[in-house]
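Re: your question from the hallway

Yes, I did run it. Sequences:
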Amino acid sequence: MSDLNDLIIRYREFTRERDWEQFHDPKSLILALVGEVGELAELFQWQPQGQEDLERNDPELLRRASEELSDILLYVLRLADVMDIALSDAANAKLTAAEERFPIQEFTGRAPDKVRGS
Amino acid sequence: MSDLNDLIIRYREFTRERDWEQFHDPKSLILALVGEVGELAELFQWQPQGQEDLERNDPELLRRASEELSDILLYVLRLADVMDIALSDAANAKLTAAEERFPIQEFTGRAPDKVRGS
Amino acid sequence: MSDLNDLIIRYREFTRERDWEQFHDPKSLILALVGEVGELAELFQWQPQGQEDLERNDPELLRRASEELSDILLYVLRLADVMDIALSDAANAKLTAAEERFPIQEFTGRAPDKVRGS
Amino acid sequence: MSDLNDLIIRYREFTRERDWEQFHDPKSLILALVGEVGELAELFQWQPQGQEDLERNDPELLRRASEELSDILLYVLRLADVMDIALSDAANAKLTAAEERFPIQEFTGRAPDKVRGS
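Structure:
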């Protein structure tokens, strides 16, 4: 059982029923993904920093964020589907690699330095 | 059983072990997500259009795309986790809404018109 | 005199000399733009919030940000060029519209509410 | 004379009049930029590939693209302003670097290979 796979299959069927496979090349799907990421970013752009507790108590913000995260997830799954990528396995492999790349002792309380490389 | 949930729990544990929760506010996580979406976009930006069959036979492109899609998925799951969003349910609800919003008869072979609204 | 236009013309010439116009359709250029925005986002994703003074004193961060902002600007100008858009005029018109949409009295010290619409 | 600088100064004044400097830290401005890039991407996501001539004859698409490109430009300029970056010089330096990095003989008609590095 896999809810990732269930979503992939359901979205694939949705696409096929509307004859939309013709629109779902990678470049177009990535642009659609970018559109949804933009909607998520917009929700948070002016949120005050350091007040994440307030955000967690703002049901309308959470409802909108939930919708945008869903849209993003669905395009990610559709991209994996059209490229025939086993996404659940790949994501687990990525976490395994991250565990090795960021040893607990060295990185506790310290974020990777993206400016100078880490 | 849910592989989405397994990934969420595994990533949560990875974060806790490194005391990285302090970095994982929504604004920071969305910026990290944008970074990964940018890496995915970069892979495809100069790919010739209409040659998606070639892409599907380019193992290095698929390997890199698989890594970027995994990174994107993981940040989406982490965002859902810190906001306590039931993402699998939300994504299924979104698909149900899309089925109603885009009736098969009306939208077969026709993409939503994003320029003029649809 | 217009430095925006000088950059547009210089980039156009750069493109023509390499016979790269064939790659510069809007979808491809937007993906390239997204790649550069991702690199900018990555520089700031784990920067501590509320410590912008430190950022302004981090020459390596500023150097990298300057490069990414340049890349973003150049793709924006290239997009305007291939679509024959008078960008300087359009941006000034946007500012005029914003001045009317956000009257000083109503919006002093108050950001637009992107969650509930404003 | 510099229209880039004129826009920067005009946007700075717009911000100051509304006491919005407090919202314009880099992380928040990058999220706002991402929101506008998302709106641009959305306009083009389902546009048929290889029909850019049609796009150039679609006044509504061009009008919307012009607005989104303007919004993106304005956030890029605002980011340069809050980080005190001389963007026009930096962008020209980037073009000079690109001219050296991509010699005409080697790259005529050939896009950089982003998958395997170039």
